[in-house]
Structure formats: C-alpha cells, structure tokens
Amino acid sequence: MSQPNDATDDGLLRRAQAGDEEAFRLLYRRNCPAIYRFALHMCGNSATAEDVTQEVFMALIRNAKSFDPARGTLGGFLFGIARNHLRKRWEKDQRLVPLPEAYEESQIDHATDAASFETVARVRQAVGSLPSDYREAVILCDLEGMSYEEAAAALECPIGTVRSRLHRARALLVEKLRERRPVIRASAVGE
Amino acid sequence: MSVSQVSMDCEFFERILCDLDREGVLPAAVRDAALVHAEGCARCGRLLTESESLDMHLRSLGISAKMQSPSPHVESVLLDEFRGFHGERRLIRRRWQLAALGVAAAAVLAVSYFLFGHFAPGRNTVKDAEQTRGHSAAPAFEQQATDATAPDSLRAASSTEGSEAPSNKSLVKSAVPAENATSQPEKNLAQEAAFIPLPYADATAEIEGGQVVRVILSPVALESMGLRSSEFGSSGNVSADLLLDEAGTPEAIRLAAQSDSVSTPN
Asked: Which terminus of chain A faces fewer neighbouring Cβ atoms within 10 Å, N or C?
C-alpha cells in the first residue's frame, strides 16, 4: 500500500528505484514537459529536444542514486542533466547551436492570432539568439517560473550568478526586441 | 521598513528591475519605493514599461510552449528501458542469491562431512572390531583346534610335517570359500584349523573348486586313507568332513564333532 508522501517526486523516485513502473510513469509525466520545453528552447529543434528528454530519463533510470534530495529538487536535478546533455551535443555538433532563424515552423501554434504569432516568433528568436548561459537563466526563471534557488541548483552556480545572468539576458532581450520591432512591422505591412 | 525609509535611485532601480515581478524576492517596501521612483523618473519609467512588456512576451512564449510535449514514443521507449533495467537487476540479484545458496550448501556439506568423519559413533567401533578379529580371534581358534580337540597323533603329524603345514593351510584356505561362501569368518577360521591333510595328499598343490562333504567313515575306510580309528578315540564309525579336490580325491579330513564343537560357541 502506498504512503501519502509517495506522491511527491522523492517518494515516486524511491518506488521507481524499487522497480515500480507506475511510479516511474507518473514521475515521467510530471517532469517531462518542463524538460522537453527547456531542451526545445535551448536547441530550437523538436527532434533534438525529444532525444535530450529521453536521455535525461534514461540517466534517471540507470543512475537514480546520484540524486540527493538535500541538494535540491528532482526537477532541478533533471534540468541539470538536460543541460549537460545539451552541452555535450553542442560540443559534438555545432549545427545544433540555434541561429536566430533556426526555430522550426512546427513549433508555432497556428491557433493563436496573427499578432500573437508574430510576437511569439519574435520573442522566440530573440531568446534563441542569446548566449547559452543567459538563455538558460531566462528559460528556467522566466519561462519555467523557477525560483533563483531552483535555477541555481539546476545550473550548478550561485544564486547571485543566476540573478546577474538573468539581468543581462533581459537587457539583451529588450534591446533585441526593440531592434526587431520596426523590421517585422515593415515586413508585415509590406505583406 | 516603510517606503520613505528606502533610498531609491536610478542605479538601484535598474539593479532590482528584474526582481520587481518576482514574489518573495524583494521586501514590499523596496518594491513600492521602486514603483514610486519609476513614476517620477522618465528613464526608469521607460525601463519598467519595457520590462513589463518583456514579461508579457515571455509569458506568451511560455504559454505557446506549454502546448508542446514529446511524442508518446519517448515514453514507451523509456518504459521499455525501465523494464529491461529492472528485469536485468532482478536477474543479477537472483544469480547472486543462487550463488550464495550454493556456497552455503557446499559449506554445510563440508562441515557435515568433517563432523561425521570425526564424531560418528559407529565408525571407531567397526574399526576396533576388525582389529580385534584380526589379532585375537584367529589365533584363539588355531590354538583351540590344535590343542584341545585334535588327536595327539594328528597334532604330532601336523607338527612333524614342518614346512608342509603352511602350504596345507593355504590349500585349505582356498577351498573353504567354495564350501560356503556366505559362512561367517569365525566358522571359516575354525574349519581352517580343524582340517588335517591326508598322508597321500599333494601338499604343494592348491585345491581349486574343491568342496567339503560330510561322510561316515568306517575304521577300514580310515585305514585306507592312512589313518587309524584309534587315533580318533573311537573303534567304530567316525563322522568326518572330507575336503575333496577338483577331481574328487580327498585331500584333508576333519572330525565332524570337532568342527561342530568349534562352531558351537557362536
């Protein structure tokens, strides 16, 4: 019989370590969207994002003992693994470094209206063009809504570093969005 | 801390700008002071507007990304991996358990064998009995046969034959199993001691496949064998066992009463 605290990530992980498939399934479904989005924002490619997500949870299956709850949340731990995998991929293949226009059209939600579509595409491009350290901070703190502590644990750096990276990243984003706005408007008007 | 107590300037405002919308990062008084400062400062007001606009854009990006998720294939691959990993671990654990069980069983067997070899109650008794029989029983029968029951002349004959005696003994030894292969060792020893080789018997030849027959011999028959009935303490017929060779020729004789008396104690 499962105990009440088994519904937490730690409890589910313990059960998964003991071979409980249902616990692992719950753990995956709870954490995979955030990991996938992080990978997608970081690499701009859905296939790569799926690969990274798969590798992250493979690592969790094989090496779950390396997670220490005293050092942070399971989410932070998984983001850390995802980040390491992304970096390894970038080192192997420079093609995976996102370019400003590298985002796939398939990621765009065509259900939204044209203005939203334009805004989202513009912001996505701006985020994708940030240096990876800054991009990580923006994705974790602004897009995934992590606290500085959680982001610091995932990025394996001090809280102050996260804050300063986020501050600079946001300044760069404002600048990029300010630069692009007239161009996009002009092209939109031209169409 | 109140708003008036916070000294807010453009530099400090810029530093805390990205924390303004984050709950729990800044004290409420500092946040309020920053907002008051932005109302009075055009530059900081513009920065605040841009920051709020960026937040809104990022939020819309976040909302659009929330609809995306990995394909179900990833989950099935991971579940397969999970099953394989834990199945393999179970297999490895079971192998270790079996190995440990085998080692434990071998250890128990070794200890049992050692203890049985040293402390089994019947083991020394059997050894002792064999030693007792080998060293004391046979000489006793020999002594009985030669000293107590055999006639004096026969005793003399066996003693005077000297070197022939051992060969006759060996002759009798080989013949006895043919008589009764399942008889007890004590009885064989008694028979061995009681048989007396006949005078004409070939002392050097061994009897193979010979047998023992019980006969009643008249004094004449005894004499034909080179024996006298007076030597057996009787003037009439005598019951005796004859040891016959393969051809049926008597080679040795034993008084039936003698052999019976020897085997009686058992």
From this structure: N
Residue A67 CA to residue B109 CA, distance in Å, equals 45
> Are B228 and B222 spatial neighbours (Cβ–Cβ below 8 Å)?
yes
* Interatomic CA distance for residues A42 and A140, integer angstroms: 11
What phi, psi does A154 have (nearest 5°)?
-70, -35
Q: Find out whether A118 and A125 touch, Cβ atoms under 8 Å.
A: no
- Can you spell out the DSSP letters for B62-74? HHHHHT----HHH
- B64 to chain A: nearest residue by CA? A109
Residue with tokens 């701006």: A126
| Predicted-complex ipTM score | 0.73
- A37: chain B residues, CB-CB within 8 Å: 65-66, 68
| Residue in A37, A61, A167 nearest the CB of B81 | A61
B149-194 tens-digit pLDDT: 444 444 444 444 444 444 444 444 444 444 444 444 544 444 455 6
Rounded CA gap, B257 and A4, in Å? Answer: 99
Q: B100-110 burial string, b = 16+ CB within 10 Å, else e? A: eeeeeeeeeee
